[in-house]
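User: Hi! I have a protein structure encoded as tokens and I'd like to know what sequence might fold into it. I'm fairly new to this, so please keep things simple.
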């Protein structure tokens, strides 16, 4: 779903927001941006591989904000951005691409978090604006960690948007402030994640329990593969 709104304020100028469909967190950010833009465009992201209406390539934007969006910004859109295109990545810089929370839990990471960064040609590689982290405990699972992540990421987005509106050169100052953070050289794809969900039938008990913790949600389950067929595991 793609929508255009005209509002009274012009502090942020022309803004495109790419949020997730049926996402309460996206709705909060959408409301804030809609009320603080001269002209506001909204792209409701729904699935991997989705396409954006070509007419949006005709416009220029002061800012583009991406929050839980499946759509990967192409060079043709990035060229239309006058100031900054910013993504809120649901993972710390140590984890890039897909399945960040799954790998963090499997590796027994003590911390997790979210990263706000400039969008460039590569996935999860642009200059880092802000990083926020929280502790992971042994009782945490994929769902609980993601819930904490989205809550913190929403607060992060609201803080950055309000600060950009009020302070000149805020983004440049934040990039300098956070230059100590570096993206991991490794990036995981959807294919990598699908393979990660597969459980080796010869896996040791400790690794098996860890894999269950790192992959099980209401929607997704780990699986074993026999004779070309997948058998999903239920707890």
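Assistant: Happy to help. Inverse folding works backwards from shape to sequence: for each of the 235 positions I chose a residue that suits the local structure. Here it is:
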């Amino acid at each position: 779903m793609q929508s255009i709104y005209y509002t009274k304020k012009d502090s942020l100028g022309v803004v495109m927001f790419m949020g997730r469909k049926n996402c309460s967190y996206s709705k909060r950010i959408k409301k804030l941006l809609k009320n603080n833009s001269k002209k506001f465009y909204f792209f409701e992201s729904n699935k991997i591989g989705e396409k954006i209406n070509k007419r949006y390539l005709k416009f220029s934007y002061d800012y583009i904000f991406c929050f839980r969006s499946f759509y990967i910004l192409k060079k043709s859109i990035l060229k239309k951005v006058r100031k900054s295109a910013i993504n809120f990545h649901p993972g710390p810089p140590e984890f890039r691409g897909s399945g960040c929370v799954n790998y963090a839990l499997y590796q027994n990471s003590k911390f997790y978090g979210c990263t706000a960064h400039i969008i460039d040609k590569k996935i999860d590689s642009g200059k880092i604006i802000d990083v926020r982290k929280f502790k992971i405990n042994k009782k945490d699972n994929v769902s609980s960690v993601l819930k904490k992540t989205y809550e913190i990421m929403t607060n992060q987005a609201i803080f950055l948007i309000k600060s950009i509106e009020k302070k000149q050169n805020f983004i440049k100052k934040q990039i300098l402030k956070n230059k100590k953070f570096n993206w991991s050289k490794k990036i995981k794809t959807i294919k990598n994640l699908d393979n990660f969900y597969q459980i080796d039938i010869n896996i040791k008990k400790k690794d098996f329990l860890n894999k269950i913790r790192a992959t099980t949600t209401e929607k997704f389950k780990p699986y074993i593969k026999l004779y070309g067929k997948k058998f999903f595991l239920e707890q």
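A useful reference point when you look it over: Residues 190-232 form one domain. Feel free to ask if any position seems puzzling.
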